[in-house]
Amino acid sequence: MSDVHSLIVSFLLLLLIPKLTVKNKVTYYLFGIIGVPIHEMSHYLIARCVGFQIDDAKFIQDPSVNNGCAGYVVYRYKPTLINEVLVVFVGLAPLYIGSVLIYLITQFFGYPIFDKNVNALQFVLDSMSTLDVKWVIYAWLVASITVNMMPSSQDLKTSVRGLLLFSLIILLISYFFKNELMEILAVFAGGLSSCITVGVSVVVPFIAIFSIYNFISSFRKKNPI
After folding, report:
1. Tens digits of per-residue pLDDT, 46-97?
2. What does 135-148 look like in DSSP terms, one character per residue?
3. Which residues cross the membrane (predicted)?
4. pTM for the predicted model, two decimal places
5. Range of the domain at 16
6. Concatenated DSSP letters for the chain?
7. CA atoms within 13 A on the CB side of 28
């Protein structure tokens, strides 16, 4: 499977994570206390870097009393073509910054999950069986980032025009520098795909555990002893 195809599959898996994650106060505080601020700070950091005006920002808040909103960054910019493209980098910031953080955290903890000869999911399952404190901390950090690294529907909506412009620019560049561009895209796609795959592999056992717990809790409520 090519790096681009792997990235598409990884991205689709990442799309499923929020749908599969049981949403309650336990999972919000478990994954959101770290993941939500990283998500919003990613938007904030890149918006600042590209010169957008930040009007307001809330890196974390209780979604139960804020219409389901766990955090936000409100920014504005002059409606120019270059800014429309830059919006893409701001809107998708949690995805690529989250991926970089997953890689750096993995390297810091010294786990060989990114080794091509290592099956990420199998490594995660084997590590979970040991209940090592170091692994639990690592898994919590990576899972928190992964659950919250997917850009929101609003992020994607604001990035649509910019994505179209960005695609046209890529096509234009590829006309003159096809080989060089393909090499760069392959490296980017491969790296991003690997980080997302590791993140998803760490999250899957958490989802399974919480889903089973939620099912048992619901069953007991409906069928009290």
Report:
1. 999 999 999 999 998 887 777 778 889 999 999 888 898 899 999 999 999 9
2. HHHHHHHHHHHHHH
3. 6-22, 85-113, 133-150, 162-178, 184-216
4. 0.82
5. 3-222
6. --HHHHHHHHHHHHHHHHHHS--SHHHHHHHHHHHHHHHHHHHHHHHHHTTPEEEEEES---GGGTTT---EEEEE----HHHHHHHHHHHTHHHHHHHHHHHHHHHHHT--TTSTTS-HHHHHHHHHTTT-HHHHHHHHHHHHHHHH-SPPHHHHHHHHHHHHHHHHHHHHHHHHSHHHHHHHHHHHHHHHHHHHHHHHHHHHHHHHHHHHHHHHHHHHHHS--
7. 12
Helix-helix angle 81-91:25-49, to 10 degrees: 150
- Output the six-digit token pair for 97: 């910054």
What pLDDT, in 10s, does the model give residues 128-148?
777 788 988 999 999 999 988
d(CA 187, CA 195): 12
**What is the tally of structural domains in the chain?**
1
Give the type of residue at 180.
E
pLDDT value at 11 more than 80: no
